[in-house]
């Protein structure tokens, strides 16, 4: 008789996992207050208040609230002085918005491979990609796992480059005790619906340097400079990338819960690492020891088919889902193979035919992921994830017959 649920056996669980977003009456109250104030946009107090609070939360001096994470990246690149034809070094294991923001600045994305068995840009390969056109390095703290900021800052300093951190998935993540987004020249976050801190849409650029802050501020606000600007620009320019009071009000309310939620996800992530590390065929990808807290936008591991008795990742995942565990994977194609890159939409003449990043190619085929709402689950729920993986591992012979 079959044991595995995929073959008709009893599943480990039938109940769902926590859903996202979470709800709280305080969020509703925030909306009501804004509605009654009649200040729904420019001139309101919530946008500057949230900018200040979130910058402080991540350890940066200044914040500029914008309408999306993509806008945050675009504004950061422009404020960094990235001009048409300049090169920006980034990782091919990311969401397309990272790359689209570079294209929007009419710059050229240069892809550098991820580190072995990691989902993060490999600093040891960055220097070889620097040319006289390189203006910035754009690491992505994917799923809230911080990239190696020490090594990247060292490279940027030696080559006079700007660092734009893509923290769209990394709210609450810390590198050596201080929040990501406060290490580079710019830290860019998204508040889109799925993110750990969300308001439907939205973003923020975090900055430490006053002059860069003033430049980015004008860029997001139709060229208007700060009332107390110290560094006047001859001809300030910009578009309207502003956030509304609705978003800032909701974010202020939800920010009060982010610390506890991040610690909770982090605890579950560590627990999963401990257990998955005991299962042959599942390779854990723990945080860098210098990353004192994960943003935990997702849980990541690597599936080793050979070690798992030749079962494919897809078969394993189908078996997990049959057991009631919503495990999946994220990116399956390195960004340099995205077809939109060849379409010359932004006037860049791009050709990535010769680009090969073997480590990213590998993790696109072997990566495993759980999303952040799953990391909000109870201890019993997390135990079920482990139970399901162990059950599949113990009964792998059944899967072999299932696939043959
Ligand atoms: C890695 C990464 N960068 C940038 C973005 C862009 O953020 P937004 O969707 O708010 O524009 C996202 C959003 O999904 C992302 O995951």
Automatic annotation (TrEMBL):
Entry GO MF terms: pyridoxal phosphate binding; transaminase activity
Full protein name: L-glutamine:3-amino-2,3-dideoxy-scyllo-inosose aminotransferase
An individual GO BP term: polysaccharide biosynthetic process
Alphabetized Gene3D superfamilies for the sequence: Aspartate Aminotransferase, domain 1, Type I PLP-dependent aspartate aminotransferase-like (Major domain)
Key words, A-Z: Aminotransferase, Transferase
Keyword Transferase: yes
InterPro entries hit by this protein: DegT/StrS_aminotransferase, PyrdxlP-dep_Trfase, PyrdxlP-dep_Trfase_major, PyrdxlP-dep_Trfase_small
Sequence intervals crossing the membrane: none
Highest taxon above the source species: Eukaryota
Keyword Endoplasmic reticulum attached: no
